[in-house]
From TrEMBL:
Recorded GO CC terms: periplasmic space
Designated name of the protein: Xanthine dehydrogenase YagT iron-sulfur-binding subunit
CDD domains: fer2 (cd00207)
Keywords, in A-Z order: 2Fe-2S, Iron, Iron-sulfur, Metal-binding, Oxidoreductase
MF GO annotations: 2 iron, 2 sulfur cluster binding; metal ion binding; oxidoreductase activity, acting on the aldehyde or oxo group of donors
Database matches in SUPFAM superfamilies: 2Fe-2S ferredoxin-like, CO dehydrogenase ISP C-domain like
Domain of life: Bacteria
Keyword Transmembrane: no
Residue ranges of domain 2Fe-2S ferredoxin-type in the record: 83-159
Record flagged with keyword Electron transport: no
NCBIfam families given in the database record: TAT_signal_seq
Region Disordered, residue ranges: 1-39
Pfam entry (one): Fer2
Amino acid sequence: MAKHPTDPEIEVPSAVDSESYPDSAAVAPSETPPNNRLSRRSFLSHLGAAGLAAAAPPVLASASTPVAPPPVATEEVLPEGTVALTLKVNGQSHALQLDPRTTLLDCLRENLALSGTKKGCDHGQCGACTVHVNGRRVNSCLSFAVMHRNDEITTIEGIGQPDHLHPMQAAFIEHDGYQCGYCTSGQIMSAVSVLKENVGPTDADVKQAMYGNICRCGAYSNIVAAVQQVRHSS
Ligand code: FES
Ligand code: FES
């Protein structure tokens, strides 16, 4: 016990009396903290270093770590939702990037500007979109372009030009095998293919073979006449 500073008769507990305040000695500021405890200063020191490391930009936090160079693009990045393909049309190869849902008809007309092939119904019912795939007639509106990566595609532009007409084109002109002309490219493409098929000799056979090509102008008899002329002259 210590004496009161102004009244010696009064005894007061000593601040360093280890018997009265056994715990106070353990936390006396002048003593070194136990090994498993941090002093306030060292705690703040650690906290500050960690905070700096967390807040610093990555380049500062890892200044000694080599920064990897950005990857070098080795393949062309395609627009989202498209596929790359090459189509061979009229003897020419065309590199394309298409929505895989693009029909062969739309690809020919919209991507390759081969507008001689017509879109009538877009549902396989009129024949205006007829082209040749590997020599056989096909409704291009019913076929996806991506299905023809390895095919030979021929359009009306590929069988003849104004200064060098295919015999079937010339026969259609000679027999007036058209009026408005909208169905005509499909009729001609179908007729060229029909003559390579096992079709009977009569006009009715020709009509039967070309029943998938509709002519709203009703030029059927002249169309048949043109087909038969080419058949007999070749
Ligand atoms: S547009 Fe293809 S069949 Fe009519
Ligand atoms: S010529 Fe007009 S639809 Fe055939």
